[in-house]
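Q: How would the structure tokens look for this protein?
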Amino acid sequence: MGDYFERIVDIDATAEEAGPLADRVVDWLVAEGVITRAPDSTGMYSRYADEGYAPGPQWTRAIQADLGRPPGALAVITGRHHFVGGQGEDDAEYAVCPRCATRTTFIDYPNSIEADEPAWAPFRSAVEAWETTGTGEATCPACATPSPITDWEWGDPYVLGTVCFEFWGWPPLSDAFVVDLTARLGHRTAQHMGKF
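A: Here is the predicted structure in token form.
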């Protein structure tokens, strides 16, 4: 068993933009009846939020098909965070250098399910620095060039972002809804599905 989530993460918004941007999208979701402003934590096990919004009377507007059961809460998360899909994972599989496009592998699937600590440790430290201070750099092992950690391309399902919408226990979101939500954010997004 377990609880499933689907998330949409804005990967371009700055920390300063995050709060007002999340508020505008919440206003839109409430106006559309997808959620209400009622606080809810039903079926929600977010790493970064204890409470979310209850589904609204028109919540089915957001999904592909109604599975005959009500969804859980929608967690809206702001601030600098790393997000990982899957179950119990917290490490990236790989990252691609923004300067030379070399891929640095941290987890060599299917040979290993654990991160190579010497390879991953400097990247993890850069992510932690970015989450705490807003800046963090990782040096490419291939070209020896340091780059902001937010410029690196991350392998699925690992992403850095400042605005996240986590739909807990919802049926799969429809493509049209994801496109509409992404357009309202006005930035590139990443989409994850996972299980707690």
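The radius of gyration is 17 Å.

The mean pLDDT is 93.

Upvote if useful.
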